[in-house]
Design brief:
The protein is α/β, with parallel strands linked by helices and 264 residues long. The protein is built from eleven helices and seven strands.
């Protein structure tokens, strides 16, 4: 088990079933505002929601460890220890889903349920890994994340009906540090495929995907849903890769359904 580089910054709300939400790249825990305090039914007495800033993002320091999503997954286990939580429903969107899958591989006994949103259990292709390294090297060389704006990253993250959210997403991307962006890109590039882990996860699971997600499309979501023993697949119309931000009502409904299954 690793040691945290510093205390994880965590946003927390509600009581009830522990639910940890892991954010997308290159955002922070602020992306979960609609899950923490925007809509009824997800917090309150139904769920104790914890949304940490992952290494280097938001208010959490990066530390000096080599890039690895296994380390980030172990950070989550340490967070549960510090919060006095034995088992939790773990949810992640995009990069957060990769961390959730790493956690499921390393700490399966601590899962009460699993939420995988707009993510995938397959490894990167050679071309995808090369592109991640290109971005990592470029942001470090420039000491700036402006490259992400130049390539209009928000356009790939949002569905065609979510243009009104572009400024908000651009603002969140701009808050990321070059060091965190490079570290996370290299950690994601090195992650293994985890489809073979899913059949052994005998907990309620939910797989959520935006119908217009072109980054981790519906075909990837179906692979995960088919591999999990007890999964429900939710496809959110018109949403892109950031379904929790683009369609919070539909996203939260899928999470509430998962919490109800876990409670039963």
């Amino acid at each position: 088990m690793n040691r945290l580089p510093t205390a994880l910054a965590v946003r927390e709300s509600g009581t009830g079933t522990p639910l940890v939400l892991l954010h997308a790249f290159p955002l922070g825990a602020s992306m979960w505002s609609a899950q923490l305090d925007g809509l009824p039914g997800l917090t309150g007495d139904e769920a104790r929601v914890l949304a940490p800033d992952q290494r280097g993002f938001g208010r959490t320091e990066l530390g000096t460890d080599a890039p690895s999503l296994d380390l980030v997954a172990d950070d989550v286990a340490l967070l549960l220890d510090a919060a006095g939580i034995g088992r939790a429903v773990l949810g992640g969107l995009s990069m957060g889903g990769y961390v959730a899958l790493a956690f499921a591989r390393r700490h399966p006994g601590r899962l009460a349920g699993l939420l995988l949103a707009d993510t995938k259990a397959t490894a990167d292709t050679d071309a995808a890994r090369a592109n991640r390294e290109r971005i990592a090297a470029a942001v470090l060389a420039r000491d700036s994340v402006r490259l992400l704006a130049e390539e209009r990253m928000e356009d790939s993250l949002l569905g065609p009906a979510s243009g009104h959210l572009a400024e908000r997403v651009r603002g969140m991307i701009a808050e990321a540090s070059p060091q965190a962006v490079a570290w996370a890109q290299r950690a994601m590039a090195a992650r293994p495929a985890t489809l073979d882990v899913l059949p052994g996860l005998d907990v309620p699971a939910a797989v959520v995907v935006g119908a217009a997600d072109t980054v981790t499309p519906l075909a990837e979501a179906r692979l995960m849903a088919d591999a999990l023993p007890d999964a429900e697949l939710t496809v959110i119309p018109d949403a892109g890769h950031l379904s929790a931000i683009e369609a919070p009502e539909a996203f939260n409904a899928a999470v509430r359904a998962l919490l109800a299954r876990v409670a039963r």
